[in-house]
């Protein structure tokens, strides 16, 4: 058993996860080590399945037979969800609940859940004869699936807790399952949105669900799409290819070499979302414009192929080479392989069974046992024969092999590609001409070194420049002016990742966080409350879940500090052993980077998250209570004894942010009021609104708040709201002020002036004139304010 990464901050001795007190020294651990292990918030796809009418049908059946058939059914169903990485959360009677994304996340958890559901339905058909024999009835399986943010943690009495998920999205998945009938699979709008590229769906009528004010859209998956290529339709590729001209030209240059008989092997590499698939798709589309001497053979496959079967991408390539269709009978498939073999001059007796082995339909055939080879020899013989078929095809006509997402390919397929690369090198050495181009797209994290493929060129896709990011955002959200704050946030958070920008644009519109209003785009919530799309969060979560517990905690704590953080401050709030080792691990995984200034003398190190989205997802995985405690602790460590007004702007903003997320309401008021006031003075009215509203809400939570502070905050928020056009909020603030100053003539002058300006900005000249007149009458002895009032009255009547 590995030693716990948590240590007591007092005695520094290791502690079990989730303890309330150190058993070495008795120091309380709540909020330090114990709470950190109560659970986390995470994106999870929840699958509920229930045997339809099981209770009523089995009530006259012997309980032993009921339990026996239930165990058989559940065991068979487990094969399907285990294959897709599902986690059995619980079984209750004839119902089971399976999680995809907890305790381990995958980038494609919703796809895995739907694929598992279709497999479970097929398994039920397979089990039907057994069920009829045992209890006289073949049950149908109703399934409901939903994806959302839940809390994953341990629940139950002390000493008897169990891990599970809690949240509204769990309830919705359960209700979808209850709505399903006669062996249906019902998925939510979120699941449909995340999986529609991979499955054919029937759109159903929306349903009313308890706890939801609006009808809930629902869908039923029918089958996987016919092939990977079918899922990459032009409709799904509407986003423009931005800042990839050089890489696209490099592919065309390699094709020019290949069609002269000089075979080429190219690897496209880049982090998730950098546009490898989009570039490969654009290249394949542009092939239609080439004038080849002979029509080329274009073979395209997906590294995972949509299944977990061995040789999946190889089988898809061979299916295309032999022109095998999904509805072809076994006899038709066999004849197609024989026909192609004769054309290629591959008439040896073992050609068909070896190709059948790779296609998955001769694995138990007597023909293979006659080859007198062990499994390892059989695999190599089959792979070598398939490589020869590709090269023989390339002597007849130009042949292109395009494989996307190679990082998901199984080890056998990678071995086949290594053989392909080695044969290409041998053919070149012997000066044999083959018009062959192989292009694979992969992330840097491949099971084997890229050099093992013997590539002629490795093309790396870097992040988009800031200019290109803005161009892509404009093309994704055309037809109106975009809020500057949103564009800036997307540019910064994306880290130059095109997939992030595409999914963010789609998600913002679908979730109605961004709407068209009078020819402009308008946010329906404050910019800081805009949440990232689930598809992007799933990718990042998959990266975080491979971290060991120490590195994960360190990354989460760093996310609370901010986008950049110092080693010293991180060490002060993170009671773990081997902090430096965890930092090095996170650096090696490119989740953080060292940004310590080189032109300054400092005894501290400074780090930054590699992408803002990594920081945001790491932050969101923490329980809110833990985050609040850490924010308060960071603020306390940052704060000094000098008056708040003497802090520089950066320090004040940092303290305001931490206290904003913490529990100390008085500190929240002080620093957010100070930031808001400085923002007003520099005409940054949006930031002023944000911080002053936080300060005002915090004042409402304080018993007996200071009246002067309340007055300043309400006036400031009213002013900022007036200048940003939020007139209702401005009027509400000035109404609060009226209740406080109605008997104070000096403050009434300022209030009448402010309400006059508010009415003026709204175009209500009559009301503005009345308020300005009241202010003018009261301000005759106020030389500071009277000139300003007179100036605005002249402006209002255009008297200047």
Main sheet characteristics: 8 strands, mixed
Q: Any low-confidence stretches, pLDDT <50, length ≥5?
A: 1-5, 30-37, 228-237
Residues in β-strands, percent: 5-15%
Name the overall outline: globular
Structural classification: alpha/beta
| CATH topology title of the largest domain | Rossmann fold
CATH architecture of the largest domain: 3-Layer(aba) Sandwich
Radius of gyration: 32 Å
Overall average residue pLDDT: 84
Assign the CATH superfamily of the largest domain. P-loop containing nucleotide triphosphate hydrolases
The percentage helix is 40-55%
> What is the CATH domain class of the largest domain?
Alpha Beta
End-to-end Cα distance? 82 Å
Continuous helix count: 31
Summarize the model shown:
With 800 residues, the protein is an alpha/beta fold.
Tell me what you see in this structure:
- The chain has 800 residues and is an alpha/beta fold.
- The chain has 5 domains: 35 residues, no CATH class; 192 residues, Alpha-Beta Plaits (2-Layer Sandwich); 217 residues, Rossmann fold (3-Layer(aba) Sandwich); 66 residues; 102 residues, Arc Repressor Mutant, subunit A, CATH 1.10.10.
- The protein is 50% helix and 14% strand.
- Strands 1, 2, 3, 4, 5, 6, 7 and 8 form an 8-stranded mixed beta sheet that branches. It has a 5-stranded parallel beta sheet with strand order 10-11-12-9-13, with helices on both faces.
- Helix 11 crosses helix 13.
- The protein starts with 38 loop residues before the first strand and ends with a helix.
